[in-house]
């Protein structure tokens, strides 16, 4: 049956969800519950979010964090960041604190020009086109007057309109290349409206307009951020070596595209997080930044480093077309909050703040890569994600975080430790507590059935007595255990591992030994006596050793460890622990 639907956009939100559940989730009620649990309880706020895009059915939450301690041009900032990747916010905050004592970040806006283009096809004489353009250039400005009036009051508007010949690349292809200043607005709608008005005015019979659209490549909307300090101020065990390796790491990213892509991705971790937090267009920023990284014909690093005359210098130059008014920045309450948090920056200020965040993120990554390695810190930040994924309790999180404090985190190691914590705790039998042993064994009767094995209850008790007689010296077992076997087997006694059901030492018979006492109570009395003799024998001679028929020669401490394991094993045999 076809799942193609007409009129989906006209359905209510509930109707959209019901259709989705019926057609793609087999009416699973939990699916509807998941979708609805992310709705905001404030209906007006939810309606605001619903109206941002089309066919909205719910909200998708992203973590909103803050990185404090940024000093940018002498001014203190806390920077909001929206991102799903762990370690990004922590790394930015750590680097901000680091550079706060070394002069902070120095930033400057180099230029703020933005670009839009009218793309068209013209098959006539180029000279005639140039004449037409020059005669009508003033009219093209005039065509946008109603659109640019308010922008011009704020100091913005159209800076220039150029005719560009692109016929060498594509037959009959020309463009009007228009430069803009949009002040505190990102300006996408403003630029596109101007371009469409220009295109409409410029079009004539032999000029075919293909499209009019802004460009997200803005190589003349550039901001620079920099940190620098004397090499010895970098700190660490060997700041000279660190500075050298750091510089080489940046130079590798400058000449090796495979490395440069990952290098720049780390920069964009910091930049995109702040762009998202302020309601700006992170896709536009991403595409423009990567195009800028390839502007010289080869993809390269967006950051650069120089170690010269005892000074370490690290900087970034990047195009950032941002806005602090209009669009989502004006509509989204959290976007407005983000701008307020950063002391209500204008677009130029925001460019500098975001460039500093990107530089901080890159410094953090390169410092990790050239020292401990990226996984050391990165996986530590993933620790909570792993624990949350496996529903770790607060106590488990605290215990595992403490365990990995000075260890490298890996997914498998975390899971192994979590499973170890969750392994049922063993209630080891206290062989020194006669009262408890007597009371516990007193619960047994001749009808008691074993959980495993073939011994009955009394045979089990008498078996414990018999084995206890070996270290007492009352039962001689003519067994020789080779030193090699002792060395291999005895370490088991130092572990928390149990004797597993089904284990049978070679010196034991295949069938249970017949009982020698007339009742379970008498067997228990004898076992208590044998335990007393066990402790007395070693108390009289603490240096004595006795050969165990499986583990070899054991002293008192090892015999005691064996007894605890042995008693626990057989108590479990009858469900007593």
TrEMBL record:
Its EC number is 1.1.1.88. InterPro entries: DinB/YfiT-like, DUF1569, HMG_CoA_Rdtase, HMG_CoA_Rdtase_bac-typ, HMG_CoA_Rdtase_cat_sf, HMG_CoA_Rdtase_CS, HMG_CoA_Rdtase_NAD(P)-bd_sf, HMG_CoA_Rdtase_sub-bd_dom_sf. Pfam families: DUF1569, HMG-CoA_red. Keywords: NAD, Oxidoreductase. GO terms for biological process: coenzyme A metabolic process. One of its GO terms (molecular function) is hydroxymethylglutaryl-CoA reductase (NADH) activity. Transmembrane segments: none annotated. The keyword Oxidoreductase applies. It catalyses: (R)-mevalonate + 2 NAD(+) + CoA = (3S)-3-hydroxy-3-methylglutaryl-CoA + 2 NADH + 2 H(+). Belongs to the HMG-CoA reductase family. Pathway: Metabolic intermediate metabolism; (R)-mevalonate degradation; (S)-3-hydroxy-3-methylglutaryl-CoA from (R)-mevalonate: step 1/1. This is 3-hydroxy-3-methylglutaryl coenzyme A reductase.
